[in-house]
Amino acid sequence: MRQTLIAIVENKPGVLNRVASLFRRRNFNIDSLNVGRTENPQVSRMTIVVDSRDTEARLVEANLYKLVNVIDVQDVTGQPAVIRELALIKIEAAAEQRTEIISLANVFKAKIIDVGAESLIMQITASEDRVDSLIELLRPWGIVEIVRTGHVAMMRGLAHGVRHTPGAGPTAVTNGNGQMAEATA
Q1: What is the domain partition of the chain in residue ranges?
Q2: What are phi and psi of 70, to 5 degrees?
Q3: Cα diameter, the chain
Q4: Which of 64, 87, 84 is closest to 5 using CA atoms?
Q5: What pTM was computed for the model?
Q6: CATH of segment(s) 2-80+156-181
Q7: HSE-CB of 87 using CA atoms within 13 angstroms
């Protein structure tokens, strides 16, 4: 099972290394990791996808809270969240094949962002399943190169993901303002 965590961290040198080292020491495999600045330039947001059971994800979350530069951790697995991935796909495309490839891109709401003499680059922002589907349909033309961001996630509306407060028991969560809130199933 894949768990999606969002970690809000200080935007300082070495924070990513500390987080990656924690995963290495605990022998957790990171399925995808995406990091970027937020609306506050002093804060970065990490979207971390780990392949683990729920209990292991809670352990990862608890260990993240132990790191000095970690401000907040949310588990958005199974929560109402928008989760997207960006992919750039370079395809072999002779002039006579382009119309069919462009039609396929339109079905997936992908954009052609570069055209070369014998290739084109397509951009898609969608769910992981949709990106995978497009890639499989493009394989017969000849994929030259693919780059994918991994997941980025954001809770829908004003909701926050589940926050398991360290040491407060498995059902204690905070409401996003550091105040205790009742856990919901």
Answers
A1: 2-80+156-181, 82-148
A2: -90, 120
A3: 63
A4: 64
A5: 0.76
A6: 3.30.70.260
A7: 25
The answer to whether the 2-80+156-181 and 82-148 domains have the same CATH topology is: yes
Sheet with strand 30-37: strands edge to edge = 30-37, 43-51, 2-10, 70-75
What is the CATH architecture assignment of 82-148? 2-Layer Sandwich (3.30)
| Tens digits of pLDDT across the chain (185 residues) | 888 999 999 999 999 999 999 888 888 888 899 999 999 999 999 999 988 766 677 788 888 988 989 999 998 888 899 999 999 999 999 888 899 999 999 999 999 999 999 999 999 999 999 999 999 999 999 999 999 999 999 988 876 666 655 544 333 333 344 433 333 32
Concatenate the DSSP letters of all residues of 48-62 into one string: EEEE--HHHHHHHHH
